């Protein structure tokens, strides 16, 4: 409680929103971190999360600008609003980090993930797997008489849903890329 | 102008171009080419320490007492790993260092070569940034960038790992030029927030300035501005361990240090204030105690150059990201332009309350009997050295806290202590670094006997370079601070907190060719201290003090600021089970 009745939660003009309304609710945020593509930069980011006890739900990284030496790291993390703010500030402190964007709060964004599922089986189960794959717009990228490898792209929950359906049908292996995300529009 | 030269020469050239005058180091196989260049020049003085940890702490002492970055040169493998404690110490206390390590040649990296260690991997979490340079052409640029990163924004240690073949190879030297780095932390604070803070200052009834090491790091101008602001507003001011000296201890508005062993009036003011103005401090747990009970009635403003410090531990109402000096300047400007207002009536009442707290005289002690009280030893040291151009370093323990309580600092950069990491063994090498930077000053390391032994090999360094550092050891034959916690928390079971088999410190001094002084009688103390001060050379002063003295005031673990233990209390059962898990 403020004795001087200063308005809480007013917005600041700095790069970081330093006046969040803290609560204990765990939130899931997708962060886009633009970094100098130099050796060790991923280790710095991961080391920050492990060293300070933050969660990584998903992490993807690849060079996105060869001439500019930029890589984009997309991190899905979860924590209380205070922890999320800390994570962003701590990321911003890493010297080769150029930009930190919280796609969850900066406006609408799209998230996509690519996954491959190996489903083994024969008979009805095999037919059902193929039928469901069709509904989910998954592609068959490999097939034998006893197995398929499906490739599916979509939002993470769509991939989760597909995995749930494939499990009783003979799902044996899963490979997921983790989330890539971009803000919508401009 | 670019020039061709070997990597080793480039290193020395870059140091010269950065204005480096002193390097603390220790040679080994992986840095021999650099040492060969060091040999062939006279611009930079190399100080040969006796252990790489000593080199880093010495560089910290140099940096803290000058405001310039400290420079260290060590070899690969064990040289680098020995530097890790110092790097961590510098990271936690935001001290600018540039540490150069040798590495096995690039073609041997990853082969478990002799004296190979993954130095950038090991030091990634304990540096602000680090580099492994694999091409000689890049070396110059990286070196200059390293100085830029170490000294801009929130300062910190950086490390450059340089394989031996990169040192031998010839490349193009990129000279120092205005930084092209994208790393440019903003210095100016947001004017709207500054105005909001000034408005809060105008109406505050119970304001307090809570200052920290950020004021020191911002430079001497920041301390001047702080003094101006304090005098102009008449608000009370306290400081963390790291910020001592930014406001003079003799100043009227000075409340003394706050925190776990801070002064009663400082902690009470923090607890009861209605406006807390944090300037370059970080709400460390030594300061806040239990965060839920921390200063419950106040509006909190926080000025810090590092956005990650804000809302990390304590939620604040007015965050201002910026350099302390720049923000203070703007605060003063805005406050003056709005008519220099304060709620002077309420503030006068606040001072009355503070004076009541002060009247408890929480640091009082009685020196009676034939045993020297550590507080008395420091009070005498203070009285007898006040007039000197004086720099103090400390080790870690009770003596450190007593030094912070009983010595007064009139200026910044005069007090060098390991705050964040609490590194025993820091003070002696740090005193060497300070003395190197200030050859004519009086440099005293206030030490505990146990801490001092951790880097006592540096006696060799002090002797070699004629550094007249005074080692003032408060010898209680105990790991005093550990013993105190065992008394408070562990039923007086003093497990392993005895300093057994101590050396004869006088003979030890003499073995190195230094002077040793033993003092155990309070009546001899002044003469003994004067003997130390007038001796032209390093002195080990073995001051035998009361063995079971406790350091008070103390905010016990798990308690709030207004729940302090003062001298003379019963120490049993004060800390509950919840408090005892805290450190
Ligand atoms: C490197 C290191 N190891 C252990 C500790 C834990 N510790 C804190 S104070 C202390 C005792 C210090 O004893 P001494 O130097 O004699 O100082 P005193 O407290 O007796 O004044 C210890 C062991 C530490 N701070 N640093
Ligand atoms: Mg001791």
Q: What would you note in describing this structure?
A:
Chain A: Residues 30-105 form the ACT domain. Chain A: One of its GO terms (cellular component) is cytosol. Chain A: It is an enzyme of class 2 (transferase). The complex is a heterodimer of chains A (186) and B (583). Chain A is α+β, with helices and mostly antiparallel strands and 186 residues long. Chain A has four helices and nine strands, in the order E-H-E-E-H-E-E-H-E-E-H-E-E. The radius of gyration of chain A is 21 Å and the shape is elongated. Chain B is α/β, with parallel strands linked by helices. Chain B has three domains: 3-173, Thiamin diphosphate (ThDP)-binding fold, Pyr/PP domains (Rossmann fold); 191-358, TPP-binding domain (Rossmann fold, 3-Layer(aba) Sandwich), CATH 3.40.50.1220; 374-544, Thiamin diphosphate (ThDP)-binding fold, Pyr/PP domains (Rossmann fold, 3-Layer(aba) Sandwich). The longest helix of chain B has 16 residues, at 136-151. Chain B is globular. Thiamine diphosphate binds at residues 395-399, 422-425, 448-451, 474, 476, 478-482 of chain B.
């Amino acid at each position: 409680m403020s004795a001087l009745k200063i308005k809480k939660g007013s917005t600041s003009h700095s790069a970081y929103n330093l006046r969040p309304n803290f609560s204990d609710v765990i939130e899931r945020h997708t962060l886009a971190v633009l970094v100098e593509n130099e050796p060790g930069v991923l280790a710095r980011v991961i080391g920050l999360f492990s060293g300070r006890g933050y969660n990584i739900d998903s992490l993807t990284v690849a060079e996105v600008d060869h001439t500019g030496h930029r890589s984009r790291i997309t991190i899905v993390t979860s924590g209380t609003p205070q922890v999320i703010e800390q994570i962003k500030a701590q990321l911003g402190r890493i010297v080769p980090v150029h930009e930190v964007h919280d796609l969850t709060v900066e406006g609408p964004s799209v998230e996509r993930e690519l996954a491959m599922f190996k489903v083994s089986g024969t008979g009805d189960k095999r037919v059902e797997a193929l039928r469901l794959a069709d509904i989910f717009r998954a592609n068959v990228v490999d097939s034998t008489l006893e197995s398929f490898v499906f490739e599916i792209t979509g939002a993470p929950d769509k991939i989760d849903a597909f995995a749930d359906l494939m499990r009783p049908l003979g799902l044996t292996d899963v490979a997921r890329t983790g989330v890539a995300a971009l803000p919508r529009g401009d | 102008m670019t020039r061709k030269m070997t990597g080793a020469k480039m290193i020395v050239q870059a140091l010269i171009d950065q204005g480096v005058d002193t390097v603390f180091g220790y040679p080994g196989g992986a840095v021999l080419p650099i040492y060969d260049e060091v040999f062939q020049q006279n611009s930079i003085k190399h100080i040969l320490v006796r252990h790489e940890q000593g080199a880093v702490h010495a560089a910290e002492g140099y940096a803290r007492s000058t405001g310039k970055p400290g420079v260290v040169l060590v070899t690969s493998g064990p040289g680098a790993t020995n530097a890790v404690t110092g790097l961590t110490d510098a990271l936690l206390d935001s001290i600018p260092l540039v540490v150069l390590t040798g590495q096995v040649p690039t073609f041997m990296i990853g082969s478990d070569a002799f004296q190979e260690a993954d130095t950038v991997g090991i030091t990634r979490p304990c540096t602000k940034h680090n580099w492994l340079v694999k091409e000689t052409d890049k070396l110059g640029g990286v070196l200059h960038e390293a100085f830029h990163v170490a000294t801009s924004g929130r300062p910190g240690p950086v490390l450059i790992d340089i394989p031996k073949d990169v040192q031998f190879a010839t490349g193009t030297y990129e000279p120092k030029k205005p930084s092209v780095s994208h790393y440019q932390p903003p210095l100016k604070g947001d004017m709207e927030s500054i105005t909001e803070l000034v408005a809060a200052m105008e109406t505050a009834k119970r304001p307090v300035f809570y200052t920290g090491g950020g004021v020191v790091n911002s430079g001497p101008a920041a301390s001047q501005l702080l003094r101006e602001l304090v005098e102009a507003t008449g608000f009370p001011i306290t400081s963390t361990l790291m910020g001592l000296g930014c406001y003079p201890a003799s100043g009227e508005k000075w409340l003394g240090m706050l925190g776990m062993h801070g002064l009663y009036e400082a902690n009470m003011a923090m607890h009861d204030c209605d406006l807390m103005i944090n300037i370059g401090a970080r709400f460390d747990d030594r300061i806040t105690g239990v965060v839920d009970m921390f200063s419950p009635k106040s509006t909190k403003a926080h000025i810090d150059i590092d956005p990650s410090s804000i809302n990390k531990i304590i939620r604040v109402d007015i965050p201002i990201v910026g350099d302390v000096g720049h923000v203070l300047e703007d605060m003063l400007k805005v406050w003056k332009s709005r008519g220099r207002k304060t709620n002077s009536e309420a503030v006068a009442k606040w001072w009355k309350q503070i004076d009541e707290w002060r009247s408890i005289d929480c640091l009082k002690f009685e020196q009676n009997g034939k045993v020297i009280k550590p507080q008395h030893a420091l009070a005498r040291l203070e009285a007898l050295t006040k007039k000197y151009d004086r720099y103090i370093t400390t080790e870690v323990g009770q003596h450190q806290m007593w030094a912070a309580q009983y010595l007064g600092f009139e200026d910044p950069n005069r007090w060098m202590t390991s705050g964040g990491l609490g590194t025993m063994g820091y003070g002696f090498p740090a005193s060497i670094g300070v003395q190197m930077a200030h050859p004519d000053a009086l440099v005293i390391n206030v030490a505990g006997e146990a801490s001092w032994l951790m880097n006592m090999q540096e006696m060799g360094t002090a002797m070699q370079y004629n550094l007249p550092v005074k080692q003032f050891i408060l010898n209680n034959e105990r790991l005093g601070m550990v013993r105190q916690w065992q008394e408070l928390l562990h039923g007086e079971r003093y497990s392993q907190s005895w300093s057994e088999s101590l050396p004869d410190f006088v003979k030890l001094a003499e073995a190195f060719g230094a002077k040793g002084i033993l003092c155990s009688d309070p009546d001899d103390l002044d003469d003994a201290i004067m003997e130390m001060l007038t001796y032209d050379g390093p002195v080990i002063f073995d001051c035998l003090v009361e063995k079971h003295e406790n350091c008070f005031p103390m905010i016990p673990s798990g308690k709030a600021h207004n729940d302090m233990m003062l001298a003379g209390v019963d120490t049993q059962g004060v800390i509950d089970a919840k408090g005892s898990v805290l450190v």
